[in-house]
Design brief:
Layout (H helix, E strand, L loop, with lengths): L3 E2 L6 E7 L3 H12 L2 E4 L6 E6 L2 E7 L1 H4 L9 E7 L3 H10 L3 E9 L2 E7 L5 E6 L2 E2 L12 E6 L2 H12 L10 E5 L2 E6 L2 E8 L13 E7 L3 H10 L3 E8 L4 E6 L5 E5 L4
Parallel strand pairs: 2-5, 6-9, 11-14, 15-18
Antiparallel strand pairs: 1-10, 2-6, 3-4, 4-5, 7-8, 8-9, 11-15, 12-13, 13-14, 16-17, 17-18
Helix pairs in contact: 1-5
Protein name: VOC family protein
InterPro entries: Anthracycline_SecMetBiosynth, Glyas_Bleomycin-R_OHBP_Dase, Glyas_Fos-R_dOase_dom, Glyoxalase_6, VOC_core
Length: 263
């Protein structure tokens, strides 16, 4: 049984696929990632993906649960832990961004979906989280990256919303490296904000977005499995700064990257 705890305020605490077909999503990610699934505490419209018995991510049929428009396809969403969902929603609106859904009471917590000023969708969660879930560690994504037009502007926005770089020991700090903003806590990078690589185009596949990387043993095998399961390849396979990787799209359009890079 997973142990629950309070995550570091402002740090990523979960990722979830927002899908309109929960059964099909389980079939695809089971084939490609080798995940198994179990019901969670949030009801029949949600599943928890497991790798070697460890929670990795959530899958949620939010189209039915929260009346979210998925006409543009499914997408992966990063959630950040907050102490007060209403106060966070207010800070987002004060900074000219949008709270699209919520905060809603889901299980024993409260969740919301928002979009930053550049249009990148993210979520926030008030409540208990899984203690063993940390970016870059077993049972969690390898990497979370905001791909946006201006990383500095994005850092100002998210820093104001989530209290980054306030000097408090219980909050995340930021570091600027190689024209990117690294968000760190306890000596570990928990997210990256990277600018300059997104075109100003209406295609949702290249709009600013939070992007999720999952670690696999063999990138080429993951690509083959994705194609066989009805997915497509958006980029790669190829070598990156951290190792072999490929960006894939599931049958509903959900975009993610598989990587064989080390921690």
């Amino acid at each position: 049984m997973s142990v629950l705890d309070r995550a570091v305020p402002g740090a990523p605490c979960w990722v979830s696929l927002l899908t309109g077909d929960l059964s099909a999503a389980q079939d695809f990610y089971g084939e490609v990632m080798g995940w198994t699934f179990r019901s969670g505490r949030l009801g029949e419209d949600f599943r928890v993906a497991l790798h070697d018995g460890r929670p990795v991510a959530g899958l949620g049929n939010v189209a039915r649960r929260a009346n979210v428009d998925l006409s543009g396809g499914a997408w992966w969403t990063c959630y950040f832990a907050v102490e007060d969902a209403d106060a966070t929603a207010a800070r987002i609106r004060e900074r000219g961004a949008t709270v699209a859904v919520g905060p809603l009471t889901i299980g024993h917590g409260r969740a919301a979906l928002a979009a930053d000023p550049a249009g990148a969708v993210f979520g926030f969660w008030e409540g208990e989280t899984l203690r063993e879930w940390h970016v870059g560690h077993e049972g969690a994504p390898a990497w979370l990256e905001l791909r946006t037009r201006n990383a500095f502007d994005a850092a100002i926005f998210y820093g104001g919303v989530f209290d980054w770089a306030t000097g408090r020991p219980d909050r995340c700090e930021v570091r600027y490296e190689d024209d990117a903003v690294m968000v760190r806590f306890g000596g570990h990078t928990v997210a990256c904000l990277r600018g300059g690589g997104v075109e100003a185009a209406p295609d949702p596949r290249i709009r600013p977005r939070w992007h999720v990387y999952f670690r696999v043993d063999d990138v080429e095998k993951a690509v083959e499995a994705a194609l066989s399961a009805g997915g497509t390849v958006a980029a790669g396979p190829g070598d990156s700064r951290v190792g072999r990787e490929a960006t894939l799209r599931d049958p509903e359009g959900g975009l993610f990257t598989v990587t064989a890079g080390e921690d």
